[in-house]
């Protein structure tokens, strides 16, 4: 296939079936890390820029966004193609690879907040508002932008094309809420009985509870930050919390048993998908969205020194879900 722009390669990502014992329940992973900037955020970033207010729709207009990295990478990629000046406001919680990616696309990065890996969503957002008000840049404001959720209509359509109305559960990490709520809203038009489960890090406040620090990147809402309007609690049936240890252990399982490198937020979602599969009725089809690639976390989630510094011990997920997870299929050597 020949395309005229890298933006034409956004979407149409494949599904990976994860084998479970007996195959009475099936889990499918939507491989969104195969989008061109490496995450599902390409969909919503393109949607937000395509739906800019008409008065700000000149390609020369500056844009700004507060991001842990994936939205910033997506906006930087699109800005490079469309020759837009983009500034990403990031903090030390973001992986170095994400920061380097934004700069590689030619966009500006400003690091705000404290050091030592502190997540500073509220500080980033305040600075974005200041730049928008004082410098006239367009703040895409992903947490409150309706074009965020609208950007995932195509993802839902692809799932329906591949699986039809047989999907019983949608299990997805929740940060801004755009991917989960946008996809769920569209899927429910064909599957009214769909069970929608949002997964946040233990310590995030989206589904209540006491806020505390967490290490999963690009997901959840830390204490002190505002839960955005993109989260539609009306389409979510339940919210679950997954610890960093279980999320990262699942990342290691997927890498070492399925050759699939994913980020921590996806690890949390897949862990919860396994938990759902344990109690789901026979015939259930569970879909989980792979938010981004683990290649962005080789210095963190897949770095034993980093894990040790943070006191995280990786567990054996196959043993933890003993009796559920089947061995990955082996192909004969040629």
What does this structure look like?
The chain has helices at 41-50, 70-82, 96-104, 121-135, 146-150, 153-163, 178-187, 244-258, 264-279, 304-309, 317-320; strands at 15-18, 26-31, 63-66, 86-90, 108-111, 138-139, 169-173, 195-201, 238-242, 285-290. It has eleven helices and ten strands. It is globular. The chain is of the alpha/beta class and 334 residues long.
- Sheet/helix structural class: alpha/beta
- Order of strands side by side in the largest beta sheet? 1-2-10-7-8-9
Order of helices and strands: EEHEHEHEHEHHEHEEHHEHH
Described by the principal axes of the CA atoms, the overall outline is globular
The CATH architecture term of the largest domain is 3-Layer(aba) Sandwich
Distance between the termini: 29 Å
Q: Characterize the main sheet.
A: 6 strands, mixed
Average pLDDT works out at: 93
CATH class bucket of the largest domain: Alpha Beta
CATH topology of the largest domain: Rossmann fold
**Overall structural domain count:** 2
Protein name: Cysteine synthase family protein
Domain Tryptophan synthase beta chain-like PALP: 7-292
Keywords: Pyridoxal phosphate
InterPro entries: Cys_Synth/Cystath_Beta-Synth, P-phosphate_BS, TrpB-like_PALP, TrpB-like_PALP_sf
